[in-house]
Amino acid sequence: MVNRRNFIKTGTSLALGASIFPSGSRSYRTRNDKLGVALLGLGGYASGQLAPALQETQHCYLAGIVTGTPSKIPEWQEKYDIPDSNVYNYDNFDDIASNDAIDVVYIVTPNALHLPFAVRAAEAGKHVICEKPMEISSDRCREMIAACKKANRKLQIGYRCRYEAHHKQLMQYARNETFGKIKVIDSNFSFYGVNGSNWRFTDPELSGGGPLMDIGIYSLEATRYGSGLDPVSVTAQSYKSIPDKLPGMEESIFWQMEFPDGVVANCGSSYVARSNYVHISTEKGWYRIEPAFSYGGLKGVVNGEPMNIANHNQQAAQMDAFALNIRNNTPILGSGEEGLKDMIYIEGIYEAARSEQKVKF
Amino acid sequence: MVNRRNFIKTGTSLALGASIFPSGSRSYRTRNDKLGVALLGLGGYASGQLAPALQETQHCYLAGIVTGTPSKIPEWQEKYDIPDSNVYNYDNFDDIASNDAIDVVYIVTPNALHLPFAVRAAEAGKHVICEKPMEISSDRCREMIAACKKANRKLQIGYRCRYEAHHKQLMQYARNETFGKIKVIDSNFSFYGVNGSNWRFTDPELSGGGPLMDIGIYSLEATRYGSGLDPVSVTAQSYKSIPDKLPGMEESIFWQMEFPDGVVANCGSSYVARSNYVHISTEKGWYRIEPAFSYGGLKGVVNGEPMNIANHNQQAAQMDAFALNIRNNTPILGSGEEGLKDMIYIEGIYEAARSEQKVKF
Fold this sequence. Notes:
homodimer; alpha/beta; Rossmann fold; Dihydrodipicolinate Reductase, domain 2; 2 domains; 9-stranded mixed sheet; 12 helices; 35% helix; disordered N terminus
């Protein structure tokens, strides 16, 4: 990677075709003609996945950070060559409106903070990527969509799997009916997180729910893009075996969905299990991704044979696609509207589990 | 294999330690000191699985046949060296009472015929193996148990997986809590059989139900012996996408079970899908068999590593275990009581699907 600090250190970047960047935003904006992304919320996903992914992107780059934890700033600036002018806290974040170096704000906060930051980002004239789940209620998702629309800014939800090659293969099989019509889908995404101390496991006001909100949403998503259909009804069952953990959240949840054309799905998600797959049965065969929802190492099988699809950086693909959507004003695969739909179905799943009744959409 | 016909042909069996068998039953009874089994119902499972398995058994052997299809008799007699005296039809079957060559009758008829044949076999003084599902209602299962008890005959249900090495490993993990307490079980057994012409797909009066009765019972069984627990409640959802097929039966069914100690299970079975696994998550790990319910080629994985358990003839293991249960008067793993339990749970699953209400046991 060639960046300003490397150039200063080595003096070789002119030979490599780089230019000298004066401090300030415009230089970054034009660096390799990429869109500038600011990460808002520097937790594990931002530091472990998004920042590294932004070193692999072709159409955008890590230009700035927004954080409520000042102690994190020096390391990020050093590691990713971020100038002071592109560093914000949650108080002065709205000043980002005047910073041309930042085109996109990627919101990586706890779920219930997505809306206020998305509104502020859009009002500051920035395009928005919002991590999944989009928010903690469908009403708040609608507000987010409205705010971005009003500001004429684009909105992407962090649905990395929609941009991943194995999952895109599922979409293609569905579209082409490669193995006939889809009949039954099974999917489960679970991990043993019941003892976690993160807000996802301890603070229902921030998380909006348990494993369904956090990881079950991947299975929900996979049934939708894997079938090309939206569910028409859902039943669900919620369980708890360790009463003093996961306050106000489910521990395990199963849900079943009916789609048009008689397609059905059975899904599960749990913080006391280990499962990570989507399995699709069609008239003429079956295919599966397992692991399906990890950041890498996905394995696809079709009728017992390997799919032989290469893994790649999912978040880089997702962010590059959004950058091109912005550049070319093209439709967004993981749009706010898809995020809203998922939240409507999640609310339906929770309602079905609570009432022990089928919920229709 | 050394049998009478081979001996006659080759003249070598004396050298191999065999004796010359006069025609008639006693000679067969004492052949290698094995118990004599008569197969009742010579369909695909009897011809494709049980008869071959009986060539591998150590403690029992294929001594006789009972069939309603006379045209099948010559081939069976020829292939398996079965004397005329050990061949019965459904009219003269009760004469088997006087045939000492037959110790066990293995009933391999359509489900709704299990009870009457089991009663007749027991009343004829024979021990009974009854293929799964045990019958089409719990009341009929109770009648079968009572009939065998009254005749002081032993009863085994054809639960081959309970005698299979991978599945026995599941039982051991549960018993020893090798990976801590079990938390969540997923299992599905499905195949694309919606277009089948067999009674299983066309005659609900014989089958008593659809895929749940036929193959879903394997998943139900696996949750029970895999946890060492019996369910306390069930929810279920039944679906149909091809209205003119599978008369009076479900096409796909999902069901969820709560067990003591907070163990939960999510299962499925379908005639329009392809799935064949049991996946168990515990406090400290996970393990899976997939394929789980095939006659061979089972593969076990524990925490991502192969179980490295050899496949073996499941039906031979099952029948040999029963022969030893008879010899030694020991408890039967796949007992009639287990068959009854499964039928009670299956009735609960159907009731839960019909009523869309949780059913408690």
